[in-house]
Amino acid sequence: MIAMLRRTQIILPLLLVLSLAVRIPGIGDSFYGDEAFSLFRDSGKLITDSEDRFRPLFFSLLYLWKQIGFHGEVGLRLLPLLFGLAQIPVAFFVGKRLGGERLARTLALLVACSPILIEFSQELRMYSMVALVALLQVLTFLRALERPVIGRWALFVLLGLIGVYTHFHYWIFLACFALSFYRERSSVSTWKGIAALATVVILYLPNLPNFFHFLEVRSGEYITHIPSALPKLFVAFTVGFNYFELPEQSLGRAVGLGDMARNIPLVLLVFIAAGIAIVSFIRLHVKGPRDRVLLLGHELFTVPVVLALIATLVTRQYWLQPKYLIFSAPLALLFMAQSYLALDRTLVRRALAVCGGAIVVVALLHFWNPQYYGRREDWRGVTTLLKKECTDDSALLLLASGYRLLNYYWPDARNVTVMAANPPSKSPTPEYEAELREQLVGKREIFYIRWDTVQNIADPRDVLPRALSEIAVPVRVIQFNPRFFLYEWRLE
């Protein structure tokens, strides 16, 4: 017992150091994407009044985080970073309760090195917090099974409330605990479990008006390419979001064979590791289909994914979005840890470890190079260049949309900004080109930020840049990210 305690005292700090080492690089990069919602819309007051599924708890914490003096990219992202670091010891103790020291070490290592959990530890959104809450809920559930005292039940309810008040899709995860309560009915009363879940439901009722308002206002904005939804979920939970070279994608973010061909080294590593792990995973089911750890993983990972798939098929909305299922990511890692430890041959186990390590290394090298990989646009980089290049003869042409991060990094951008006329739907027309010329009278240098989030909605056929190339001389195109370019033309 003493030796085991000493090993824990050594292993956990080492895993935390490793976790910090892979989460710090890039934490000061430009804000991007949905971080703008957290930065501007949702953290301006203690209780945000925005219509969103993901309100209000994380944003309330972020508001308080700002009040005590944390600002800027690094300062604000320290909050999700702390949530990410806290996942490691919680995962360790979950693994220890489920399968002993070996499972604890393996699961904690996988959580420390998980590309998607690393990514969300740097993103100013609620996903790192949600993964931590899910792990804490699993740990509390296991402790309640050992000793079902009122304090542990109260903590289970509290964590459930934190989860659903942070991320609406957490209801899927929470509801699946009903299966776990039923399976463990010999250890704890099923009715106690149902009562705990019912308490969370009752205490969530005050937020229902906001959710219904969200459905009315914004639910139609989210679409998905169903054939690639499950493959993307698998890839995200194993390799992450921002680790691939991706071409221009449409609104549904469809991924196909061409995208795999662009990323052959990483894809091959994933397929090799997945093949070994899947064979071991199948053997686990043959040897012990009633294994407690396997069943818990299915209840809190497999079933939520199946429910999200059904919801996606029925509603045509993106319930399978990996970040919406982030609460189940640690349970996917639990499956991986089990599969690894179940390998009988040392050589095969080492091969899987080497392959997995290579995946993490390649993924991180890509993640730390957002100019060519992933989907993190560099607003700070593009504004730094524009501030240097723009003169009184310059115009920054933009499509109608919100550019909060542009104005955040360059408040004076409005002095050179020209909002482009709405382009025709198919191709440039003489009338449209004449309208652009009129808008750009007196300007010599024309800059245009091509951001696919706006482009896919307002100008999916690139009519605006094509029209500009007809009336002006193309000078250069600078890539800041595969989804984010700066174009320059010169008017003669």
Provide structural commentary:
This protein has helices spanning 2-23, 35-41, 57-67, 72-99, 101-113, 115-120, 127-146, 150-164, 170-183, 190-204, 208-218, 229-238, 257-262, 264-287, 292-315, 329-341, 346-367, 379-389, 404-409, 430-439, 452-458, 463-471, and strands spanning 394-398, 417-419, 445-451, 473-481, 484-490. The chain is an alpha/beta fold. It has two domains: 2-367, no CATH class; 379-490. The model has no long low-confidence stretch (mean pLDDT 89).
Structure characteristics:
492 residues, alpha/beta, 5 strands
Fold topology:
Blueprint: H1 2-23, H2 35-41, H3 57-67, H4 72-99, H5 101-113, H6 115-120, H7 127-146, H8 150-164, H9 170-183, H10 190-204, H11 208-218, H12 229-238, H13 257-262, H14 264-287, H15 292-315, H16 329-341, H17 346-367, H18 379-389, E1 394-398, H19 404-409, E2 417-419, H20 430-439, E3 445-451, H21 452-458, H22 463-471, E4 473-481, E5 484-490
Parallel strand pairs: 1-2, 1-3
Antiparallel strand pairs: 3-5, 4-5
Helix pairs in contact: 1-4, 1-5, 4-5, 4-7, 5-16, 7-8, 8-10, 9-10, 9-15, 14-16, 14-17, 15-16, 20-22
Short description:
The chain has helices at residues 2-23, 35-41, 57-67, 72-99, 101-113, 115-120, 127-146, 150-164, 170-183, 190-204, 208-218, 229-238, 257-262, 264-287, 292-315, 329-341, 346-367, 379-389, 404-409, 430-439, 452-458, 463-471, and strands at 394-398, 417-419, 445-451, 473-481, 484-490. By secondary structure, it is an alpha/beta fold. It has 2 domains: 2-367, no CATH class; 379-490.
